[in-house]
Amino acid sequence: MTDLRKDFPILQDRDYIYFDNAATSMRPVAVTDAMTRFNETVNSNPMRGLYEWSIKATDAYESARAKVAKFIGAKSAEEIIFTRNATESLNLIAYSYGRAFVEEGDEIVVSVSEHHSNILPWQMVAREKGAKLVWLECAPDGSYSDEELAKIGPRTKVVAIAQVSNVLGQPKDIKKIAALAHENGAVIVADGAQAAPHMAVNVQEMDADFYVFSGHKMLGPMGIGVCYGKKKLLEKMPPFLTGGEMIEYVTRESATYAEVPHKFEAGTVNASGAVGLAAAIDYLENVGFDFITKQEEKLTALLMDEMSRIPYVTVYGDKDPSKHCGIVTFNIEGCHPHDVSSILDADKVCIRAGHHCAQPLMQYMKVNATCRASLYFYNTEDEVFRFAKSLAKVREELGYGS
Ligand SMILES: Cc1ncc(COP(=O)(O)O)c(C=O)c1O
User: Fold this and answer.
1) pLDDT of residue 401
2) Best of 21, 87, 174 to mutate for ligand 1, by most ligand atoms within 8 A of CB?
């Protein structure tokens, strides 16, 4: 672990404990170097120029696409659309697929534990098309029972569900839910923002129709995201954004569009971001998901054990640390999460406090806000102990007796 941490310049500041990895992760030097190399050697507009630099920029961008395709087990690179982030990917699917194929009276199934990014686009489609949002209610551990999943029925057109909740961390069996969606003639949109950084993903094996994630949560840069879609679906979908680079031919009155995936990538693309994401994938694959999972489970178990010894702390979700994907959401009785976060910040401990862009889940959990500590493989046991020590004094700092 000491060796791996050396790859992350920001983690060399031992004073800080960074437990907000579900919000964004840190970047190893391999990622920033790859981006710097791109910027300092071939930076020019990909796909536009017929000169060497532009051709090299195009090659770097398309190689990154091929790398992402392999990383998630897509059939071909044409099924990978680069976006800004998971949110834009979900909007792309809703605006394009949703508006074209959802009709009045249809149902869109979403889960109560979704991030707002996988709720609001579907609210928009439902409102515009006269469709109905059907909610899957989760159990307190964040799982979905077969009775809830039976809400996926013949009227369902879209099932929008996260593979891992950003609040409860509970991983879902996307393959099983995809099968239910397909039996009913619906498509499944799987939000992998909290899954792709932590586990091996194979979109063909899970039979996901769409799968989205963000580069910045998996060691990559901010501003690059991925929207995977089965080619046969992408081909029949209208464009999301229009303009330069996504066309085949334009007249004064109309246009024909480029083939997928370029049909969905209007304007100048984030080529250095794609190069950074490709370097992040190389790094993750080098470390290996076996190690990543093992390390996260070990740290999560220790964290939950330490927290269980602190009075007045409630941890939400599954009792089993291996069902958290490194995410531990909690509250301290009588303490506002913002106060908890500020007190921890004074000890240089970074956690997230608030509704985590999951207000329907907060309403379901009957809380306004929670604290969330989220780990990644580069965190350490020592950090867990220091976090617990800091957490243990929060109530006292807020004026409660011991
Ligand atoms: C489950 C989930 N989906 C979607 C998103 C949105 O990601 P981004 O802000 O990178 O678009 C997040 C971000 O926290 C998330 O946790």
Assistant:
1) 81
2) 87
